[in-house]
Amino acid sequence: MDGPLVSVVIPAYNCAGTIRQAVESALAQDVDLEIIVIDDCSKDGLARVMADYAQSPVVFYVKNEKNCGAAGSRNRGVSLARGKYTAFLDADDWWEAGKLKKQLARMQESGCVLCGTARELVRPDGTRTGKVIPVKERISYRNLLGQNSINCSSVLALTEVLREFPMEHEEAHEDYLTWLRILQKYQTACAVNEPLLKYRLSNTGKSGSKAKSARMTFQVYRLLGFGFLKSAACFVSYALHGILKYAGFWVDSLRRM
């Protein structure tokens, strides 16, 4: 029996309060898909929420025997994927209807192996900020070195490519490192410049600390084999783009205080 066109991989850890919105947004996509939720040893009520999908023919709930982290959970999901394409979605984010269909069309017309989208920032309580982070519709390796414009929850890629370049080094930004390695080989990614991803802001994730996130970004360049000076130059570009990207949101947040 043929598999689905798209496999949606959702790494999940202590996300009982948000997982339903993520899963439902994937189920609302008008493409043939399966949804693989990887429970990374959650200690909240995630299993009870997922029990509501036990009879679904397209939702699969998988538990890790030990904590593997987001990267390891995504890799496990990709290994189980039956779709020609795999999409990543974090358990606290969600998609607009039509996201996957628009990305599939963009990938087919461009010939790219990886596609992202623009995103709208959402507050931790789920309320929308109206702040949209745009994305270029063609992203070169050189573009990506200066800024990570590919958000993980927006990604749709060929499954075989994600198996070729699994996520590694959680001490760095493992998703950014993976996109760069993919573009080293395939040169260009594409994107749909519409906020089809609703991205929930959080200060509790491993990137919540700006200093820690900076160190992780610098480590990405070192893992690519760059020397100190080239890594520093790439990091400066990355930092400047980051300041510009979030400046409007930060100003608005200060005004609300």
Describe this entry's structure for a reader:
- This protein is α/β, with parallel strands linked by helices.
- It has helices spanning 19-27, 46-50, 69-80, 99-110, 141-146, 159-164, 174-186, 210-223, 228-256; strands at residues 6-12, 33-39, 59-63, 85-88, 94-95, 114-122, 128-133, 138-140, 156-158, 188-200.
- Strands 1, 2, 3, 4, 5, 6, 7, 8, 9 and 10 form a ten-stranded mixed sheet that branches.
- Helix 8 (210-223) runs antiparallel to helix 9 (228-256).
- The longest helix is centred in the C-terminal third of the chain and has 29 residues, at 228-256.
- The N and C termini lie far apart (56 Å).
Short note summarizing the structure:
The chain is α/β, with parallel strands linked by helices. It is built from nine helices and ten strands.
